[in-house]
Amino acid sequence: MNRIGRERDFGSVARWITIAAAAVLVVVVAVALVRFSGRTSTLSTASVERAIQGAVMQCYALEGAYPPDLAYLETNYGLLLDRTRFVFLYEVPGANLLPIVEVTER
Fold it and tell me: d(Cα 65, Cα 90) in Å, to the nearest integer?
């Protein structure tokens, strides 16, 4: 084989290595994005729970009683809840017991 033929072979191999490296990079970025979006979802759910619990504690500190439901917090404490994105569980186990708050993403 002459010199020009070897350069073509090397160019072909280099092209395939570049394509394979690009494909691996695309897969790595896709996996990272999926993991990041899952973690972001978990963080936003936790921050919504903390906001609700903060409003619950503020209500208890000011009024001496826990709020009966989330609508009370929305009306009297300015809590804004995105019911299109999240599902809320708010249970009051007793008159003077801390309510159970759970937030899950739809």
Answer: 15
Q: pLDDT at position 96, please? A: 87
Taking the C-alpha atoms of residue 15 and residue 19, their distance in angstroms, rounded to an integer, is 6
Range of the domain at 61: 3-105
Q: What is the pLDDT of residue 76?
A: 95
Residues 40-68: b if buried by 16+ CB within 10 A, e if exposed: eeeeebeebbebbeebbeebeeeeeebbe
- List C-alpha distances in Å: 44 to 38, 39, 75, 104: 10, 9, 22, 10
Residue 100 has pLDDT above 90, yes or no: yes
Q: At what angle do helices 70-77 and 3-63 cross, to 10 degrees?
A: 80
The token pair at 6 is 């070897």
Provide the number of structural domains found in the chain.
Answer: 1
